[in-house]
Amino acid sequence: MSSFHNYPSKLLEQAVREFASLPGIGSKTALRLVLHLLKQDSEDVESFGNSMIELKRNIHHCKTCQNISDTETCQICSNPNRDNNLICVVENIRDVMSIENTNQYSGLYHVLGGIISPIDGIGPADLTIDSLEQRVKEGGIDEVILALSTTMEGDTTNFYIYKRLNSYPVNVSTLARGVSTGDELEYADEVTLGRSIVDRTPFETTFSGRKQGNRK
């Protein structure tokens, strides 16, 4: 795990190992973070640790859209000023935050919790597609925007959801291709992402265009 071997303390080694288990954190960065915490006041370190424990114990997933929330229903779903007839389907919580930062969207969300990826063992049943269909089935939804990453897995998930919703009286659209193919939403700049939402296109048109392009 670590490029360091002669830790002066087992407690230090254990703390470094825990930090290094986080995604994107190598052993050197983990050691630097742990040593930084050691320099802080005990109260600050306890506050840091307690905030992580509190987060894990008390965080909720919104019962409607699956967004992270402090309560059973998130602030977006409970906001009377949001457009309840519009649902934007995203892969994860980070995508909700990215779209909210554009200030170009006023509807609701549905967080899938991932995308279909057979190579990673993720199928439709592992995502919240059933609850999305149920929301549409209950009525009152005019449009579902598929705002997934422009990757092969994202496109596969888009098409699967489109087929699931095809029998309902709801418009299904997708982001305009301002977001480059292969990009994930969280890495798109706010102006580009905002424009791609405003200029969204019917999914059927986008899919038909791609099929024709593949025949060339």
> In order across it, which strands form the biggest sheet?
4-3-5-6-7
Overall SS class: alpha/beta
Portion of residues in helices? 40-55%
Task: Give the averaged pLDDT, no decimals.
Answer: 88
Low-confidence stretches: 209-216
- As for the CATH topology of the largest domain, it is Dna Topoisomerase Vi A Subunit, Chain: A, domain 2
What is the subunit arrangement here? single chain
Q: How would you describe the overall organization of this protein?
A:
- This protein is of the alpha/beta class.
- 44% of the residues lie in helices and 12% in strands.
- The chain has 2 domains: 10-58, RecR Domain 1 (Helicase, Ruva Protein, domain 3, Orthogonal Bundle), CATH 1.10.8.420; 81-215, Dna Topoisomerase Vi A Subunit, Chain: A, domain 2 (3-Layer(aba) Sandwich).
- The protein has helices at 10-20, 27-39, 42-58, 93-100, 129-137, 152-165, 190-198, 203-215; strands at residues 60-61, 68-69, 83-90, 107-111, 143-146, 171-174, 201-202.
- It is elongated and about 65 Å long.
- The termini are far apart.
- The model is unreliable at 209-216 (pLDDT under 50).
